[in-house]
Specification:
2 helices; membrane; single chain; mainly alpha; 65 residues
Length: 65
């Protein structure tokens, strides 16, 4: 198994990305907002999480031993 050594800020950025992605998905399925607001917020958070995942994945794959 390959291991990657990450610093605490890098690990925190990965965790925050997962939170944003999950929050976006949660809003897409929630009923607290109007459908239009929910879709806008949900898709915005989901896409922000997905877009920030790509550079973080490259960081992790570049640091593998």
């Amino acid at each position: 198994m390959k291991k990657a050594r990450l610093t605490l800020p890098q690990l925190s950025a990965i965790a925050a990305t997962r939170v944003v992605l999950g929050g976006g998905l949660g809003l897409l399925f929630a009923d607290r907002f109007s459908p239009r607001e929910r879709r806008a917020l949900g898709w915005g958070l989901f896409l922000a999480g997905a877009a920030s995942t790509i550079p973080l994945m490259r960081l992790v794959f570049d640091k593998r031993c």
